[in-house]
Amino acid sequence: MNGRTRRELLAGGLTVGLAGLAGCANSGGDGGGAGAGTPRATDTPTATPTAPTYDTSLAHDATAWDGYDPEWTAPTTNPEGEYDIEVLVENLDVPWDLSFVGERLFITERTGRVRVYDSGTVSDIAAPQDAIDAGSVEPGSDDASWFVKGGEGGTIGVAAYPDYPEPPLVYVYYTAQTGDGIENRLAYLDASADDPAAHSKVLLTTPAADIHNGGRIAFGPANYLRVTTGDANDPDSAADPASLAEKFCASRRRVSRHPTTPASTRRRRTRWATGTRRVSTGSRTRRRLSTNTAPGPDEVNRLVPGKDYGWPDARRPESYAGTDYHRPLASGAIAGTVWAPSGATFHDGDGPLAGRYLVGALAGQQLVAFTLTREGETPPLGETGVRYDAGWLDDEYTATSHTLLTDELGRIRHVETGPDGALYAITSNRDGRAGEEFPRERDDVLVRITAA
């Protein structure tokens, strides 16, 4: 295989050992701790309940990760065609993220719930502690509110522990109400507990606002948990390494799980990628990719730790000229395109979408398939294809995009590869921003997408 191997293209992100996010600056406080909910002592002596302990040790090398695939090659075919859409769950309440563990699928709803889809049934798991209710419009409503009461916050990112249910932990990124306003939190919940919130712990806090909260999380290369954050409506914070807003960082060794270990001994080295904007994708990818959106033009980026991606100074071709800012692989400036990219995945499944970076497009109400190729591997353009080969772009790969499923599902919030090789997607049609006949009476939905 020519060029870099897939092992060299492992995903970027805010990278941490489990329960060790204090290794990055500004880590959060304790959300009740593992023993939260323990009864207070009374006048009658009683046995003190033992707080749960969890073994979160994992092998931290690339080959131990289930996404390791050094033999990856880019497809050279055109992904345009007919696709079957099977609706699995109707009337979800603004779902935001998906996380598979075997056949079990965890789903977040921005209104404050973590749910699980298993054997054809969806049920509630937990409501994170102090999570805001982001609100939603009714199914079938023609209310174009643009912002529901929670803005772009709420219960958003979710990632189940790779060896779930040993331990039975589910990690959640959500917007919480505090006495001083709102903040974004990363916490774990014990999904097996009668009250999962009673056995939870906050691992990280980041700035929050009505817009630009980030929040995509996933276990990625070398089994580290990766987190993307937003700029919380403060563009200047994106370039500030002292802020966790709009960042990717890497902790290069597994950090201690013991909460009393000094931070100086829990962190070996941290690397930052700065100057990104409104990041809500990236951590689900099996390659070092992410997207930038709003204000446009939208971008697909190849993440390189330590690089500055230019926000808020650079986002158009002329603003990159004469700078060291890292250039995008694809930019909406090329064809005047607006995607409003949301959740994305590098599809490791079956069919004509395999081997492509698939991005849910909110504004376009479509699925955008990006194919990244080397010289001699460019796919045909077809009817919707756009080639991103301008001289000012990142020349590591040539990106080609194709738009699929336009206005068939509405606002596609996230896509994820299932254990059966199919593509799974959730919609975000009840957040007040949908157009063209959405939301429908069945919205929001979880669907399974396969080639017809």
Structure description:
With 452 residues, this protein is mainly β. It has one domain: Neuraminidase, CATH 2.120.10. The chain is 2% helix and 32% strand. The protein contains two helices and 25 strands. Strands 18-19-20-22-21 form a five-stranded antiparallel beta sheet, with no helix packed on it. A hairpin with a 2-residue loop joins β3 and β4. The protein is globular. It starts with 13 loop residues before the first strand and ends with a strand. The N terminus is likely disordered.
Q: Quote the CATH topology.
A: Neuraminidase
Spatial ordering of strands, largest sheet: 18-19-20-22-21
Number of domains: 1
CATH architecture: 6 Propeller
Q: Strand pairing plus helix content: what structural class?
A: mainly beta
What is the CATH class name?
Mainly Beta
| Separation, N- and C-terminal Cα atoms | 31 Å
Could you report the average pLDDT, rounded to the nearest whole number? 79
Low-pLDDT runs: 1-49, 246-272
**Largest sheet descriptor:** 5 strands, antiparallel
Secondary-structure element series: EEEEEEEEEEEEEHEEEHEEEEEEEEE
- Described by the principal axes of the CA atoms, the overall outline is globular
Radius of gyration: 21 Å
Estimate the helix proportion, in percent.
under 10%
Within CATH, the superfamily carries the name TolB, C-terminal domain
Number of helices, counting only DSSP H or I runs of 4 residues or more: 2
**Strand-residue proportion:** 25-35%
Number of strands: 25
